[in-house]
User: Which sequence fits this backbone?
């Protein structure tokens, strides 16, 4: 048996020294926002290394089902996705909203009880943070303030839809990957009719072009619910190019995190339709780190190790004497990644050990 990795990424390398490769530059940011004190919003930017003004894509994270997981989140988990946009000539900024990661301020997106959720009210806090980020980033000399796209996954996709209903200056389009709120367990959404109604209300005011992508086997927001949300949004006046992607992995909700080659064609087509193609040729992906897989891995284990090499920091890979394995990436610290990788491997074996931490062997 093997442990199935979370955040398995199919492309990209993300070094820890601050430079992704000679073609890219990476910068850690603190974005001032109301209610965040001196800490601001934690963020990270990836863009092409050459000087100039770049259009901005703001990448918005989801919200874990367990509240205790919010503080363990890190913007580095989205570096592969950020680099995909940087390859296309964008400055990509991953921003953590209040209450997530190391951002300042208290969690502000509470929807209320499962029996009485207020999805529209909760979106106001998300939108406030995203607007603050866009206003701040628009003042940078390397950002083109007239070409801004918001792209988000899950709760971040929902926040992006809400943002298009109250767009800041310069926002020209939105992309939602499996957007929604209120999933408390697989195939269970708190009062899903209220989620549909929230999309209807956003659609009354949203007039920017949007791309929505949902996988057929999404266990958070399944195909039937996704279509209801689309119909409500479009019926109220919103503009959506809706993509029902094929089933992906065990839970299609991981498509944005783990299926970069699967979703980039739809994104490219959408950007082309909006005349937002910035480069004729994509920048090359950074090279993978030169670390070798353990000798006792099976073919599937070696494939998993290749995905590990391409994943975002912090990360760790664990293996047992019988070849069972597990890995985790996108963690706040290397220790967090090691603990999570050992736990994943231990689900299938009793003598797991760490064989790789980030881009090196211990």
Assistant:
């Amino acid at each position: 048996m093997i442990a199935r990795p979370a955040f398995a990424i199919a492309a990209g390398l993300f070094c820890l020294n601050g430079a992704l490769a000679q073609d890219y530059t990476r910068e850690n940011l603190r974005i001032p926002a109301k209610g965040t004190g001196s800490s601001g919003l934690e963020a990270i930017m990836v863009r092409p290394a050459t000087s100039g003004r770049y259009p901005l894509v703001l990448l918005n994270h989801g919200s874990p089902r367990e509240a205790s997981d919010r503080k363990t989140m890190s913007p580095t988990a989205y570096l592969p996705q950020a680099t995909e946009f940087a390859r296309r000539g964008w400055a990509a900024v991953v921003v953590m909203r209040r209450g997530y990661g190391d951002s300042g301020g208290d969690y502000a997106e509470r929807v209320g009880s499962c029996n009485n959720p207020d999805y529209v009210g909760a979106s106001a806090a998300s939108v406030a943070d995203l607007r603050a980020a866009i206003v701040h980033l628009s003042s940078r000399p390397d950002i083109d303030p007239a070409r801004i796209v918001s792209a988000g996954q899950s709760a971040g996709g929902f926040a992006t839809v809400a943002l298009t209903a109250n767009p800041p200056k310069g926002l020209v389009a939105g992309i939602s990957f499996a957007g929604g709120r209120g999933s408390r367990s697989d195939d269970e959404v708190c009062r899903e009719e209220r989620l549909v109604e929230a999309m209807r209300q956003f659609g009354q005011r949203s007039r920017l072009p949007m791309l929505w992508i949902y996988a057929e086997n999404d266990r958070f927001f399944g195909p039937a619910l996704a279509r209801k949300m689309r119909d409500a949004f479009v019926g109220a006046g919103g503009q959506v190019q809706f993509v029902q992607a094929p089933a992906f992995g065990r839970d299609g909700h991981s498509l944005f995190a783990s299926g970069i080659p699967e979703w980039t064609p739809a994104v490219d087509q959408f950007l082309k339709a909006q005349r937002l193609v910035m480069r004729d040729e994509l920048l090359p992906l950074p090279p993978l780190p030169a670390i070798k897989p353990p000798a006792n891995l099976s073919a599937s284990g070696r494939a998993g190790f290749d995905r590990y090499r391409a994943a975002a920091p912090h990360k760790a890979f664990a293996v047992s004497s019988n070849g069972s394995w597990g890995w985790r990436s996108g963690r706040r610290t290397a220790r967090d990644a090691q603990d999570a990788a050992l736990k994943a491997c231990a689900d299938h074996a009793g003598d797991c050990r760490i064989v790789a931490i980030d881009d090196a062997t211990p």
Observations:
- The longest helix spans residues 119-138.
- DSSP finds nine helices and 13 strands in the chain.
- The first strand starts at residue 24 and ends at 31.
- The CA atoms of residues 271 and 277 lie 6 Å apart.
